[in-house]
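Form 7-S
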Amino acid sequence: MLKSYLYLLFLIILPGIPQLIVAADPPEARNDYPYAVLSVDSIDMGQLLSGGQAQGMLTLTNAGRYDLVISRVRSSCGMLITTWPAQPIKPGEQGSITFRYDTTRPGSFKRNIVIHTNAWQKNLIVPVKGEVLPTKGNPSD
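Output:
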């Protein structure tokens, strides 16, 4: 009977062990890579007027010991356009990612900015949300 309990306990604990190792994230594990720190976890653009300017910026800091390279920044939709630095970000320095949202379609939106890097975290995802308000005289009113 004791053997059955130990086996059951082993089956419950075993799947969680790799997650505990990753969650610990000791600083020593990051020493061989750049380490990206974002200025924000998510972006709320609030309410925007249709046809108006909707742009923003987020900052990426290299907290690692090696150059941070942003190889690509993409969005989950063509309505969100991004630009990023082409040059590597040196240790301790910052780079800016700018974005703009096409406000021609009224309604709520939720999109993601996906940042592909050589950092320890590899890909960073920043959710972006907001609402485009229709203007008077808009056919969708």
